[in-house]
């Protein structure tokens, strides 16, 4: 996939926040949702660019790392994570190409669908995400 933009570590970290928010929208993050995320990171996000973190690991793994960290922290909520992602997207809109926006929606939908289909709270959050990603 050719993004034509240089991604950053915070870009991937904010995706981790977003995908956590989607999984946690119904108040419960299930292991199958995290497993689905890990599959999608390997199959789709590793190919976005060749940025590496300070340990020489593909930066796309930051998505998983942040998701897992947020899942362990009982103080954080999905609304704050979603808001953080939207604020980041607004401040770094140049990173959100049409291909990246499509991949974000595809990943978010797959996570939401991973456990018994998409429920009302996940559908609402996906609709908000879709609207936000349409704004340049």
Structure write-up:
It comes from Winogradskyella thalassocola. InterPro entries: TerB-like. By secondary structure, the protein is an all-alpha fold. It has one domain (9-134). 63% of the residues lie in helices and 0% in strands. The chain contains six helices and no strands. α1 (9-24) packs parallel to α5. The two termini are 20 Å apart.
Number of helices: 6
User: What is the residue-mean pLDDT, rounded to a whole number?
Assistant: 91
Note the run of SSEs as H and E: HHHHHH
Task: Please state the overall shape, judged from the principal axes of the Cα atoms.
Answer: globular
Biggest sheet details: none
**Beta-strand segment tally:** 0
Summarize this structure briefly.
The protein is mostly helical. The protein contains 6 helices and no strands. The protein has one domain.
Write out key terms for the chains shown.
single chain; 136 residues
Q: What layout of secondary structure does this protein have?
A:
Blueprint: H1 9-24, H2 31-43, H3 61-72, H4 78-91, H5 98-113, H6 120-134
